[in-house]
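Summary of Year 1 activities. Much of the first year was spent building the evaluation harness for sequence design. The harness presents a backbone, in tokenized form, and records the residue chosen at every position. We chose the following record to illustrate the format because it has been used consistently in internal testing since the harness was completed.
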């Protein structure tokens, strides 16, 4: 006579379905996290490029002589390396520093306010902008630092 074993020899359909649901949910969550990580990596790369280009344009402004500063807005494209979707814009204006007393005509209360922007137009036509704003003295001799030393004796 053949005896049949009526014990549990395998998994029920319900147990298999629950385990598949858990596995598929885990896989979906992992794929979603991977996709987000790739998006953030691309965004960080874009931000690093824009920051480097912004520093380049601010550095270019340091090479302009004080007498050549002029009010207005300039803009252009980056040539090295050529980037089709990234442009720069620089706005220069005189501002009066009202909190500072005017000493004499050689030391006016005006300063240059320089705003440099880097604008990246993405493929979906949205724009990402990064800007830096700084001030420069109106005259070059005002910008010179005092000689070193000269403390008390």
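For this record, the design step produced the sequence shown next.
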């Amino acid at each position: 006579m053949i005896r049949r074993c009526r014990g549990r020899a395998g998994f029920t359909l319900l147990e298999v379905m629950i385990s598949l649901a858990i596995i598929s949910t885990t896989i979906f969550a992992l794929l979603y996290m991977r996709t987000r990580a790739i998006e953030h990596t691309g965004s960080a790369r874009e931000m690093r490029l824009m920051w480097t280009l912004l520093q380049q344009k601010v550095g270019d402004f340091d090479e302009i002589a004080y007498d050549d500063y002029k009010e207005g807005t300039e803009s252009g494209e980056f040539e090295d390396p050529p980037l089709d979707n990234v442009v720069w814009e620089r706005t220069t204006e005189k501002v009066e520093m009202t909190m500072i007393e005017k000493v004499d005509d050689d030391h006016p209360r005006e300063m240059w306010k320089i705003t440099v922007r880097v604008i990246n137009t993405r493929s979906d036509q949205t724009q990402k902008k990064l800007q830096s704003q700084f001030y420069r003295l109106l005259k070059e001799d005002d910008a010179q630092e005092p000689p070193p030393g000269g403390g008390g004796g």
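The CA atoms of residues 41 and 139 lie 44 Å apart. Quantitative recovery figures across the full test set are reported in Table 2.
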